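quick one, 109 residues, struct below
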Amino acid sequence: MSLRNRVTLIGHTGKEVEVFNFENGGMKASVTLATNDFYTNAKGEKVEETQWHTLVAFGKTAEIMQKYVQKGKEIAVEGKLTYRSYEKDGQKLYLTEIRVDELVLLGSK
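---
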């Protein structure tokens, strides 16, 4: 078992799944995922902190995501961190994404 570069998250999707179909028949799906963490601050107050993650999936996983995942759906994913960059208006921008290998549908919306 390889534990290098593995990410496991459970959260709720923040938007509808976006799908891109490649010329060769392949598919890419992407969606944002919100995860929440709770802690008590120095004043004794309970604080909720939300982190947003960008998920991308390809092939069969992308098809499942397109068919069964809607905005607000609770899901569990396992995958790996990936990084990419692109240029926009002459400025180089960087993205961190989670490439989903496993997807589990949880609960209801």
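The chain has one helix and six strands.
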